[in-house]
Amino acid sequence: MTKEKVDFASFIDAGILPAVEILNEQGFETFESCQGGEGHCYEDPTVRFFGSEFDLIRAYETCRAFGLNVFEAKRVFRKADVYVDNNTPAVKSVGETWDKPFNELVFLIHSKTGTIFFPR
Predict the structure, then answer these.
(1) Where are the domains of the chain?
(2) What are 85-97's pLDDT values in tens digits?
(3) In sequence order, what E strands does 1-116 have?
(4) Whether the predicted model's global pTM rises above the 0.85 cut
């Protein structure tokens, strides 16, 4: 049985696709992206990916080397509620835990190119 190759590019916003492709080609594991703007999840073009804080620095430098207009590079730590479902109608939070941290790059649309790339 062979697996069909999924064309993930068709599921990614066109405005952020170049950044996702560059990061994936360079070995980064992206898991969320958005081109930003009205009607989108994020205000600015954003890519989230797994890795260490050193991967974040490497990803930032990689994107800059490819001419991408990186605005912010962040390491994100989030708290999440912990729930216990004891088959009762009301599921209650029993505390909080920290999710695994991830990295986030935020890009700006360049005024001259209209894209996330610097002019050449």
Answers:
(1) 9-107
(2) 666 666 677 788 8
(3) 29-34, 46-50, 70-76, 79-84, 92-98, 102-107
(4) no
